[in-house]
Design goal:
single chain, 6 helices, 3-stranded antiparallel β-sheet, alpha+beta, 4-stranded antiparallel β-sheet
Length: 221
Amino acid sequence: MNYYKFLASGQVAPFSGQTWSTDWLQATATVPCQRGLHACRVEDLPYWLHDELWSVELEGPITVAGHKVVAQRGRLAKPVPQWDADAGAAFVRACVGRTAAHAAAEYGDPGGHLLTEVADQLLAPGNRRSGSDPFAGVSEVALRLQRAAALSGREIAARLCGYLADAVEMAQTYPVPALGYVAARAAQARRPDPTDDRYDAERRWQTGWLVNRLELDTSVG
């Protein structure tokens, strides 16, 4: 099993303030969210995005607690250099694109094709939207379609267009993980899928995006 740790700049744990290094850290006990060395599995990565990403070594009993693991001993193994400012910006674009895709799926034509176009462009490798602002005009489209959906009584479509407008605004100022949360909430706001939880499915999509972008090893052994 591969384990990872997101840290603030300088190898500092963002919640505990503990500085990590390649030397072993030792905890006297393990209590999730309180005591111990906390890290995550690959499927937990979207929940913990921060400045630096490292692969870590853990020893002792390892407890899975929600979207994290906690161990008694841990140390940094090696950085994941593919996680940088460009990767973070690309993740934000992808999450806004996914939010647009969820809105398109519930909107229907004629407005849905505009949302699909936005989603396709933001999700395309390298982002094909012209100009220096990848979100130029997206909020205007979202708000216009939100009004039209609200006037015609399509509450879900209107709500999702509102999510898209919010996502565009948040992309300018909010930390990267906030956009992952917005996309997951947008998925959850759609009509229920009887075969899967849409929120969890969206988080799995984000995990796949990170694995591919960061070239992570997901092999077991």
